[in-house]
Amino acid sequence: MNERNGAGAAPFYLPQADECAVFEAAHANGLPVLLKGPTGCGKTRFVSHMAARLGRRLYTVACHDDLAAADLIGRYLLKGGETIWVDGPLTRAVREGAICYLDEVVEARKDVTVVLHPLTDDRRILPIDRTGEELDAAPGFMLVASFNPGYQNILKTLKPSTRQRFLSVEFDFPKPDLEVKVVVQESGLGEEQVRALVRLAGKLRGLRGQDVEEGVSTRLVVYAATLIAQGMSVDRAVRAAMIEPLTDDEDVKRGLLDLVAAVFG
Ligand code: ADP
Asked: Across residues 219-239, what is the average pLDDT?
């Protein structure tokens, strides 16, 4: 779990549309928000930016297939011969009026969604069976979850009964002009070179669902630009950051490298 204090300057975030206004309205009304979109398109950055802007502490939980409700709520632990209750990140956020961000929520075990339900309707409560407590969420508490709908896993999709409890905001990779600004800011590389990388990213994304499962993320474009800014050759950096992460198939790789040559050749 990653914790960030809401105080201080908000991390850099360039809005794609009206997502900041939607998030602010949701926060003001105690409504949960689901961020939908491919990996590496800015969802996590958006949440840390908004938490800082709203002056709220942020608890981020990267969900995985072993994550159970107790990991979010808390558990009894043995400390110096004594058994003490230790709040999990969700419980802490509920008590403190903080923002709890469940990244890739579909990955978590099924009992997690059961815990979220009473928090995502107008009751805004968190029952803790183990201690017998029933917590009312403090003002300012907000539940945010992310979900990658393009990720093809039939067993892991969000049930309608859960989805319909969240406002949904759709994310995608930023439009080229916006992505150029993001990558320049994040990497320090000059705009002209960044434009070429973003053009390449657009072409690679055009292959989504054909040769490669997922298009190249903004995160990877930032990585490539960072390596180039630090002196690595464009060819090496692009291979390491924008080609190898997409596929292990040598034939497909060759095809992708042709695209690189077309953009940079
Ligand atoms: P996600 O949570 O969608 O997987 P992240 O929020 O971690 O993705 O984004 C990956 C990286 O892309 C960030 O660390 C940041 O460098 C960059 N990024 C993407 N979109 C934006 C944006 N709109 N403003 C600022 N940085 C962005």
From this structure: 97
